[in-house]
Write a structure and sequence with these properties.
This protein is an alpha/beta fold. The protein is built from six helices and eleven strands. Bound molecules: zinc ion. Zinc ion (ZN) binds next to helix 4.
């Protein structure tokens, strides 16, 4: 059910859900919605008061989300599938050359595509290029990263590339298998490595607890910097 409270003259509307939980939790979602789950023993008025107390934090979170949207609009990578257009590949802006009679290939920092000025066709060819390159590059990055992990007793993972809409990477610990999102191929290599490393650390620590973070930062001290950059550059879709 939706409830509203007044925080310093601002109306904060939140979705309340009673659940079998011990503590009250409050979330602010990407679309700025506020959601609260609360144990059944709490009265609605008590929950209202709680939300009111968190007013400053809620407004600050919503502000941050909005800032981030502005930044993303400014810095986010966007391909241009036209004659004279470009695509992003490993963080570089690659000019597109439309050319008949040549298969899609990267030559001297330019991507040759066999297509006329038809955005849909160009986008299709670019997607094929991303798909074929991502598995090759992900495996190379894995080959380069693994020697740094071997002494931890981690087995070398098999790598797959797949387009995913909700995560950059996934791991199957039992199978020693890591799946990386093909959308990563637009980002700088360090961004891709940060995702790969994150999944590898799960081989030793299933959760994102203290031990997980300690090892992750030890292996890649600038981890946060690269993941932040990644999330700014590409919005998962
Ligand atoms: Zn994780």
């Amino acid at each position: 059910m939706d409830r509203s409270v007044d925080y310093q003259g601002q109306i904060l509307t939140y979705a309340l859900q009673y659940k079998k939980v011990k503590h009250i939790t409050l979330r602010v979602y990407d679309d700025l919605r506020i959601a609260v789950s609360a144990p059944r023993r709490l009265k609605k008025e008590e929950i209202d008061r709680y939300v009111q107390q968190k007013g400053a934090w809620i407004l600050q979170s919503q502000h941050k989300i909005n800032q981030r949207k502005i930044e993303k609009a400014q810095y986010g990578l966007r391909n241009r599938y036209t004659a004279g257009g470009y695509i992003y590949f490993l963080g570089d802006k690659i000019p597109l050359i439309l050319h008949s009679g040549i298969s899609t290939q990267l030559i001297d920092g330019q991507l040759f595509i066999n297509a006329t000025d038809d955005s849909q066709k160009i986008a299709e060819k670019a997607a094929q290029f991303y798909q074929s390159q991502s598995i090759i590059i992900f495996r190379k990055l894995n080959d380069a990263l693994y020697p740094h992990l071997e002494m931890l007793g981690i087995k070398k993972a098999t790598i797959a590339a797949r387009r995913m809409s909700a995560s950059w990477g996934r791991c199957h610990v039992q199978k020693g298998h890591i799946v990386l999102n093909t959308q990563l191929i637009q980002a700088p290599k360090e961004c891709i490595v940060s995702v790969l490393l994150h999944e590898y650390v799960h081989f030793l620590h299933p959760n994102h607890g203290k031990e997980f973070k300690r090892l992750l930062y030890e292996l890649m001290p600038e981890y946060d910097q690269w993941t932040e950059r990644l999330n700014l550059l590409i919005s998962l879709s």
